[in-house]
Amino acid sequence: MAEDSDLEKTEDPSSRRLEQAREEGQVPQSRELSTFLVTMTGAATLLLLGGWMAGRVMGLFRDGFAFDRRAAFDENVMLDMLERMLGGALLTLMPLFVALMVAAVAAPMVLGGLVFAPKVLGLKFDRLDPLQGLGRMFSLHGLVEMFKAILKSVLVGGVAALVLWYEFEHLFSLMVEPLETGMADFSATIVFATLLIVLSLGLLAAIDVPFQLWQYHKKLRMTKEEVKRESKEQEGDPMIKGRIRAMQREMARRRMMAEVPKADVVVTNPTHFSVALKYDAAKMGAPVVVAKGRGELALKIREIAKESEVPLLEAPPLARALYKHCELEQAIPAALYTAVAEVMAYVYQLDAWMKQGGLPPAAPTALPVPVGMDPGVPAE
């Protein structure tokens, strides 16, 4: 049962899945929204420029049907007149054509945005398969599209029938009106009918857009296994990442161990902690921690220090404080300056004794570690 649930597409599409779909040209689209926007643009253009366009068309008709009788028998004159009428009609309707063209191009971008998908331009022979075409026609999506087409026809046809029934007498009265008045009335009727059609298409688009968005996201849903696989691809395999981190830690450990022979002293807690310090008065403002460790790593630091003849100093409180409050390649905190200064003084005395002989210096004891810095002693 668990395997079956992992194979069911129950998860919402990830941002990566949506991005891949856009690259393949798959974006939410609504034909009803496009039809509504184009029709609304045409209606708005007619509403704003309809009077001007009607006046221009009426003037073209007046000039076109008013000519000298002798010109009717001259084909050159008639061709010139036809050319002028067609050119004038084209210029008159140009704003409407431009507005409709812009709306047709911009309409698909409302839901899906601007998409450039070269993959869609490739030739795919499976699209030419008649069996797949029949399958798409009789699929649930095909049935929904057929229902929307029927509903659209009913709405548009119903609105047209309503306008004809409501304006029946008015339309017949246009035949006895003067040309100018009749054209104006007829244009107003056309705009009125178009607005009603736009409202009906807007209602259909308001229903279709949420459905298309839901269907689009449903189509791109992912199984739990796909989500896990995508997460691994983006973030990397946890096992590989763990191996990389382990290798990084090992490399850092080797670099740290390489610094132990260069240290001036290793402060230890005999069985738990080891911290290697180095101080160069010409380059450093305070001693720097070059290596630290606990447990087996602390033992390894002490072994390398002995092999490299680096002095070891047992100072458990200071070793614990340095391990807790100091980072590698960082200077010690100011609160430990006094204690570390006594340690460095002992190291210099030890070095001088080894070179010159005499009485060996006494190792410092009871180093001043401020209250609260030693994790082994609870703060008061």
TrEMBL record:
Keywords: Bacterial flagellum biogenesis, Bacterial flagellum protein export, Cell membrane, Cell projection, Cilium, Flagellum, Membrane, Protein transport, Transmembrane, Transmembrane helix, Transport. InterPro entries: FlhB, T3SS_substrate_exporter, T3SS_substrate_exporter_C. The lineage of its organism: Bacteria, Pseudomonadati, Pseudomonadota, Betaproteobacteria, Rhodocyclales. GO terms for biological process: bacterial-type flagellum assembly; protein secretion. NCBIfam families: flhB. Required for formation of the rod structure in the basal body of the flagellar apparatus. Together with FliI and FliH, may constitute the export apparatus of flagellin. The gene is flhB. This is Flagellar biosynthetic protein FlhB. Residues 1-28 are annotated as: Disordered. It comes from Thauera aminoaromatica S2. Belongs to the type III secretion exporter family. The chain crosses the membrane at residues 36-55, 89-117, 146-166, 186-211. Residues 7-25 have a biased composition (Basic and acidic residues). Pfam families: Bac_export_2. It comes from the Bacteria. It is found in: Cell membrane. One of its GO terms (cellular component) is plasma membrane. It is a multi-pass membrane protein. PANTHER family: FLAGELLAR BIOSYNTHETIC PROTEIN FLHB.
